[in-house]
């Protein structure tokens, strides 16, 4: 009784104009003995049909004399002596989308199993591979280690792009990179032995990164006129107490003015504003805007608070309008005096 099995990914996604590697290993009982008895060993990849029939079957690859059908090139890169049947299919076109069956020929008449899920003693579908061909690559997968960050916590971003063709892997680039970010990029094997290019970006969360959209771009080289570029993006959510709290006075002149307490905070929907007059303990108002008259000289400030903290603005000074009127007069007076002096001097020189 023979036991035979092969392990390969159930599906691989290939890109037209590129290649696709099928990672593959097999196991056969008494392989060494069989190899001793055999004249030769070669492999066959059958397209679409699991049933091996010398006249009916579409043999895409026969490694015996490197016979290739329907493909421009196929190479077995695995070493059969190491139970490795890894194979690369080149110059993929749309009509290569299909299920492929691996068959080992140990001749003459020693053993010839097709690694087929439909045979009685092998119900495992991982013994065949389905190649799914796409004209454009899948966008890279961009992941954050957390949905939200507090300030100074570490943000870890990972961007992964499938690399079905190891000789033409994609390139990953980032946009909107924070200053303190460090990036490492490497090819990694997934559990099914297919490869992906992973790029990791790490940086400390700053409130300035809140709502920042970070994009990861993967570019796939291909044997077609244009490379393919696909991207993924995420928007950062940083939680922070009020920052840059300041007061805006409108209008800039006039007796009746509105003071607005401006701030940046996250979240900003639970913001509480409090107004104070300098020198007085008690708040004068609890809202974003207040209306005041410039009837007396006084300083005001506001505080903004969310669940992460609180910040006070600088003071703003409102001066009595009559005083500012006075200063206007002084400025005009000075300008007038200067003008008169220049005129007199000119006259003096002219007369001389
Ligand atoms: C594979 O190729 C060899 C050499 O041409 C040939 O003898 C053999 O019959 C082929 N195998 C199959 C299954 O077609
Ligand atoms: C697949 O399509 C290409 C052209 O796109 C053609 O040259 C080739 O013969 C086709 N192969 C098969 C197996 O139909
Ligand atoms: C099988 O061969 C391929 C190509 O040489 C190699 O990359 C892979 O690591 C091998 N797999 C194992 C399990 O040795
Ligand atoms: C000042 O202006 C606000 C609106 O801009 C108005 O509601 C308020 O009545 C005005 N107050 C005075 C004293 O004119």
Description of the structure:
The chain has 352 residues and is mainly β. The protein has 3 domains: 4-134, Immunoglobulin-like (Sandwich), CATH 2.60.40.10; 141-236, Sandwich (Immunoglobulin-like); 240-322, Sandwich (Immunoglobulin-like). 11% of the residues lie in helices and 47% in strands. It is built from 2 helices and 28 strands. It has helices spanning 31-37, 321-351; strands spanning 4-7, 11-15, 20-22, 25-28, 40-47, 58-62, 67-68, 74-76, 87-89, 98-107, 114-115, 128-134, 141-144, 149-150, 154-162, 171-175, 182-189, 195-204, 213-220, 228-235, 238-250, 256-266, 272-277, 283-285, 289-293, 298-306, 309-312, 316-318. The strands form 7 sheets. Strands 2, 5, 6, 7, 10, 11 and 12 form a 7-stranded mixed sheet that branches. The N and C termini lie far apart (130 Å). The model is unreliable at 117-126 and 324-334 (pLDDT under 50). Bound molecules: 2-acetamido-2-deoxy-beta-D-glucopyranose (NAG) (4 copies). One 2-acetamido-2-deoxy-beta-D-glucopyranose (NAG) binds next to loops. The site of one 2-acetamido-2-deoxy-beta-D-glucopyranose has 7 residues, from strand 6.
